[in-house]
Specification:
The protein is α/β, with parallel strands linked by helices. The chain has two domains: about 1-140 and about 305-335, Medium-chain alcohol dehydrogenases, catalytic domain (Quinone Oxidoreductase, Chain A, domain 1), CATH 3.90.180; about 145-280, NAD(P)-binding Rossmann-like Domain (Rossmann fold), CATH 3.40.50.720. Helix content is about 25%, strand content about 25%. The protein contains ten helices and 15 strands. Strands 3, 4, 5, 6, 7, 14 and 15 form a seven-stranded mixed beta sheet that branches. A six-stranded parallel beta sheet has the order 10-9-8-11-12-13, with helices on both faces. Helix 7 (about 240-245) links the parallel strand 11 (about 230-235) and strand 12. Helix 3 (about 140-155) crosses helix 4 and helix 6 runs parallel beside helix 7 (about 240-245). The chain is globular, with a radius of gyration of 20 Å.
Length: about 325
């Protein structure tokens, strides 16, 4: 089968075409999937440089998020059938309940080879059926970004009348916008691009704030909303955490999602403690969360925000470069 991999060295420039033996027939409780699409997350940039504690070893197949068709099943498989469009879950061992240390060795595109390959065999427990009427390209956007947003927004009990702030217009942030609106929240979104903010408004954002024009954007959020936010989705890490905390109401929550702006931040402990705020990381989610999310997507007929430029199978490096430049809107995807 065809793959895209890093063989000789880590780094975006070292992602090259290759071949691997076709996987054997699926065993009992397993399904063979032919991939049709993939999508990028910021972690894929970090992994390409052998980050996150140096997990993975060469040769290495990148990317955690993909979608494909089941083309064969082993004995006893009941969760999917031949022809189903499915997504492998990000953490193959995390089925339900809270994240456990034991699940950490089962990440696709990390501890386990990723989705940039023609075929893969998965345990049926590690697969989720895609939403109805979604294409493979759309479904590939779900496993990491969408489930993380669902975990952060719905997992934190967002309800009608709440105020949710989400940062930027990447995959997690735009899914968070959609899920918060489903819950009946008022949504504030930030970006440095007025054009992107206009597109986010078209997707349902109630308030748009250009953080480049307003570096102290937390103050503007409070002015426009009339109070602090119930939930802030923080994807910037070191670059945004101070403003995220300042934008949050007493007893509110900052959901720590990403470290796009740096992984080491100074924390204003006095404000956090005296305002009884909660800082809670959302690291993807379980298969159970994924399935709950798909039911909501089907019920409300949601569609993901896919970046205008779609890449081909052999263009992984170019796709990652676009991600690093921050010019995209929504999920950067690859069509096989």
């Amino acid at each position: 089968m065809q793959v895209m991999e890093m063989r000789e060295a880590w780094g975006i420039d070292h992602i090259v075409p290759g071949t691997r033996p076709d996987p054997g027939p699926p065993g009992a409780g397993e399904a063979l999937v032919r991939f049709e699409a993939a999508s990028l997350n910021y972690r894929d940039l970090v992994m390409a440089e052998h980050g996150y504690g140096r997990m993975g070893s060469l040769p290495f197949i990148p990317l955690s998020d993909g979608a494909g068709r089941v083309i064969a099943t082993g004995a006893g498989v009941t969760r999917c059938q031949v022809g189903d469009l499915v997504c492998p879950i990000f953490l193959q061992g995390w089925i339900s309940g809270p994240l456990r240390e034991a699940y950490r060795g089962s990440t696709l595109g990390g501890d386990i080879d990723g989705v940039m390959r023609d075929f893969a065999v998965f345990p049926e427990t590690g697969l989720v059926k895609a939403p109805r009427d979604w294409t493979a390209l759309e479904a590939a956007s779900l496993p990491c970004a969408a489930v993380t947003a669902w975990n952060a927004v719905i997992g934190n009990g967002t309800k009608p009348g709440d105020v949710v702030v989400t940062q930027g217009t990447g995959g997690v942030s735009l899914f968070a916008l959609q899920f918060a609106k489903l819950a009946g929240a008022t949504v504030v979104i930030t970006s440095s691009s007025d054009d992107k903010l206009a597109r986010a408004r078209a997707m349902g954002a109630d308030i748009a704030v250009n953080y480049r024009a307003h570096p102290e954007w937390a103050r503007l959020v409070r002015e426009r909303v009339g109070r602090g936010a119930d939930l802030v989705i923080d994807v910037g890490g070191a670059a945004t955490l101070d403003q995220a905390i300042r934008a949050t109401r007493a007893s509110g929550t900052v959901a720590l999602i990403g470290v796009v702006g740096g992984g080491t931040a100074k924390l204003e402990l006095g404000r956090v403690v005296t305002q009884a705020m909660r800082l809670e990381a959302a690291t993807c989610g379980s298969r159970e969360m994924f399935e709950d999310m798909v039911r909501a997507i089907d019920q409300h007929r949601l569609k993901p925000a896919i970046d205008d430029r779609v890449f081909g199978f052999a263009e992984v490096a170019d796709a990652l470069r676009r991600l690093s430049q921050g010019e995209h809107f929504g999920k950067i995807c690859l069509a096989f």
